[in-house]
Amino acid sequence: MRIMHGHPSPEAVGGSKPLVKIHEKAFIVLEKPRTQSYYCIDLAMEKLCIKESALVAFSASLNYRNSRLPAEDDNQMIHLQGKGKVILALSGKPKAFPVPSDQGIYLSPRAVIGWTGTLLPVLDTTIQSEKLDNPGLKLCLRGEGSLLTTAM
């Protein structure tokens, strides 16, 4: 069940491919998608925000809440915090890029897998697209943390 703005929502986490909570200790065997690989992130009390479409599983010990990424069809995000593991299915190897607290990073919303720390996504409608090589670079992440992407 998604948790939006502190309230439960009838929508399932994962949308059309809902995540399932297993209430007992178990081994889980997952079939790898043909065009993707699995990646494991081990959280040690950090904050991690990930696109739901990339999320395969996460430890029940992690707290979560949901949000949406501005200006993107694939916009469901899940914020995870605590100590535990997160499994992602991605088409390319994820890369982390630090975002200095005194600067923002501009990119296409499609390039975002997620971020760590206290980054806040803002859609910047003031950008003059004719001045950019890529007019899709309208999402700005500001705050302190790292961007996760398979682009670049």
Structure description:
The protein has 152 residues and is mainly β. Helices cover 0% and strands 46% of the residues. Strands 3, 4, 5, 6, 7, 9 and 12 form a seven-stranded antiparallel β-sheet that branches. It has a three-stranded antiparallel β-sheet with strand order 8-11-10, with no helix packed on it. The protein is globular and about 50 Å long.
Defining key terms:
mainly beta; 46% strand; 3-stranded antiparallel β-sheet; 7-stranded antiparallel β-sheet; 152 residues; globular
Helices and strands in order:
Elements: E1 3-4, E2 7-8, E3 37-51, E4 55-58, E5 63-68, E6 76-90, E7 95-99, E8 104-107, E9 114-117, E10 120-123, E11 139-142, E12 145-149
Antiparallel strand pairs: 1-2, 3-6, 3-9, 4-6, 5-6, 7-12, 8-11, 9-12, 10-11
